[in-house]
Amino acid sequence: MADSFRVGDALITRIPELRWDDTDPAVLYPDLDAAALRDHGPSLSAGSYNRATGRLAQGTHSWLVRHAGLTILVDTATGNGKSLPAAPKLHDLRTPYLDHLRAVGVAPEQVDLVLISHIHADHVGWNTSWRDGAWVPTFPNARHLYSAIEARYGASNDGLAPAPDLPPAALGPPDHPPLPLVYRDSMQPVIAAGLGQAIVVDGSEVAEGLSFHPTPGHSIDHASIRLRSRGEEAWFMGDVLHHPLQVYRPDLRSGYCEFIAPAERSRRWLLAQAADSGGLCFSTHFAETSAGHVRRRDGGFTWQFAPSIEDAQR
Ligand SMILES: [Zn+2]
Q1: Can you list the domains of the chain with their CATH numbers?
Q2: Which residues hold their Cβ within 5 A of ligand 1, which is an ion?
Q3: 297 forms bridges with which residues in the sheet?
Q4: What is the DSSP secondary-structure string of 155-208?
Q5: pLDDT digits over 76-122, tens only?
Q6: What are the residues facing 55 on neighbouring strands?
Q7: How far is the CA of 257 from the centre of ligand 1 (A)?
Q8: For residue 246, how far is its CA from the centre of ligand 1 (angstroms)?
Q9: What are phi and psi of 31, to 5 degrees?
Q10: How far apart are CA 312 and CA 290, in angstroms?
Q11: How far does the centroid of ligand 1 lie from the alpha carbon of residue 118, in Å?
Q12: Cα(105) to centroid of ligand 1, in Å?
């Protein structure tokens, strides 16, 4: 059963792809110290932290947003058949993601907009599907919005078009580059089909109530996407956070963050925005409903999952 939420006039539904419950916290967070789970483990719910095994639960999915007459996907998870041997959990998947989308009444042809927080394998994969020997757009009538800088960096890393000005010096040196082939397999076919729209991530409105806000660090020009509707607010956090533990310990970088110091600054900025606005936060990799609220406590932050509309009916 899907998990749906109302924010103002918007109906927001999680389109699941993967779930797993065996993340080693020391792999996800390379700088993990013993105090992190000792102090904050009791604040984590059993659906996110298995005290018996010491492992963390995570997943991948998209957020379907139906708002102002538009059918919108925020990030497109990993996709089927993508070659990602460096990320075994994501490599060469066969998931019924598109069936989950159809089950809530949306055919791929009906998607109007795809909003991309950043160009990483598990956020752009369903942009394309393998058909007749080529990657072709999965959502043939959708405009795909993404950071122009992310796209130039991706094209450069995949050897398609050099971008000697990237990354900008202000971000510091990258800890590592993004996974190869992601731009080539999941972005270039969409752009070649005329379905791409590169944007400047500057907080301006890209569709009614929707805006991309700079939260660089996890990736070169990572965006957090805000929705405002009827005085209510939602934040699609992308990969600013990977697990609720990081709400309590925003100093912890994930092993997947490319620019470590900016990633922490962005994490603290978004947590403050979310806490002070009271907006509903939609994560990409949290388990359970994957949505919840950030609140301030004792100079830091806490996380509480929000029940979905379906939870209330169960
Ligand atoms: Zn991710």
Answers
A1: 3-313 (3.60.15.10)
A2: 122, 239
A3: 300
A4: HHHTTSS--TT-S-GGG-S-SSPPPTTHHHHHTHHHHHTT-EEEE--SS-EEET
A5: 999 999 999 999 999 999 999 999 999 999 999 999 999 999 999 99
A6: 50
A7: 10
A8: 14
A9: -100, 15
A10: 16
A11: 9
A12: 26
Q: How confident is the model at residue 2 (pLDDT cuts 50, 70, 90)?
A: confident
**291 in Cβ contact with 240 (< 8 Å):** no
Q: How far is the CA of 60 from the centre of ligand 1 (A)?
A: 7
Q: Which amino acid is at 83?
A: S
Gap between the Cα atoms of 175 and 156, Å rounded: 17
Give me the residue label for tokens 């999965």. 138
Ligand 1 centroid – CA 238 distance (Å): 7
Taking the centre of ligand 1 as the mean of its atom positions, its distance from the CA of residue 244, in whole angstroms, is 14
* Cα of 75 from ligand 1 centre, angstroms: 9
pTM of this structure:
0.98
Measured between its terminal Cα atoms, the distance across the chain in Å is: 10
pLDDT higher than threshold 80 for residue 194: yes
